Amino acid sequence: MTTARPPLSVLNGRFVTLEPLIENHLPELFEAIAHPQVFAGGYGGGPAGLPATLTEFCAFARAYYPFGAGNPYAIRLRGGAHDGVLVGTSTLGDFELADEAAHIGWTAYDPRVWGTAVNPEAKLLLLGLAFDSGFGRVKIQADAANERSRAAIAAIGAVYEGTLRRHKRRADGSWRDTAVYSVLREEWPSVRAGLESRLERWGDKPVPFRSTFLPAESDSGE
Fold first, then answer.
1. Could you tell me if 154 and 219 are in contact, meaning their C-beta atoms sit under 8 angstroms apart?
2. At 171, phi and psi to the nearest 5?
3. Helix (H), strand (E), coil (C) string for the chain
4. Model-level pTM?
5. Exposure b/e, 52-67, CB count within 10 A at least 16 = b
């Protein structure tokens, strides 16, 4: 199969819809993810990188998300009382066509949907898109200090490859180490089956959208 960057189009799952992220989504995305709980795990440069206003968030988003170079998505709930609510974002990017490599990252979710079907189904859709497009390796990474995010990545079935030391500067000027995981093409059938099994446990019930935030634990932080 020839490896090709996938078209940026809507991806429909049972619990979520991924639609191409555009400027008009930013106010909704600000409401969903501009919270201390999200940035505490290292997202967007860590706690010091948290935008305080919508104007600051829009400037952050334009610089942070790989518009043009990647395929960024807005993630919305499907079904139930909260159908259509924007609850996060993720991106398939860093396309290396010659090496058949890509990266799922820039991922963050509203804390009110942490621990639900949102993250596993988003990963199922994005990994499926990558492997259907001919990629052989998909990287997923997180701040090495973010144990919750690392556990969420490992639970997908991604394999830990190692830690890049002093890899990225945080917004406060300190340096973070980055834990790197990946899923290979030959591992995808098993990973897919595991994700589908996790989603089956939710049955046909829509994703619950909590009225309050959970403590600082995260499916986000890449």
1. no
2. -65, -25
3. CCCCCCCCCCEECCCEEEEECCHHHHHHHHHHHCCHHHHCCCHHHCHHHCCCCHHHHHHHHHHHCCECCEEEEEEEECCCCCCCCEEEEEEEEEEECCCCEEEEEEEEECHHHCCCCHHHHHHHHHHHHHHHCCCCEEEEEEECCCHHHHHHHHHHCCEEEEEEEEEEECCCCCEEEEEEEEEEHHHHHHHHHHHHHHHHCCCCCCCCCCCCCCCCCCCCCC
4. 0.94
5. eeeeebbebbeebbbb
Condensed to tens digits (0 to 9), the pLDDT of residues 38-62 reads 999 999 999 999 999 999 999 999 9
- Answer yes or no: CATH 3.40.630.30 is held by domain 11-202: yes
Q: Angle, to 10 degrees, between the axis of helix 188-200 and the axis of helix 118-132?
A: 150
pLDDT tier for residue 216 given thresholds of 50, 70 and 90: very low
Tokens of 202: 């939710």
CA dihedral 46, 49, 52, 57 (to 10 degrees): -110
How far, in Å, CA of 106 to CA of 163, rounded?
18
Report the alpha-carbon angle 40-198-31, nearest 5: 35
Polymer length of the chain: 222
CB atoms within 10 A of CB 189: 10
| Domain ranges, ordered by start, for the chain | 11-202
pLDDT in tens, 74-133: 999 999 999 999 999 999 999 999 999 999 999 999 999 999 999 999 999 999 999 999
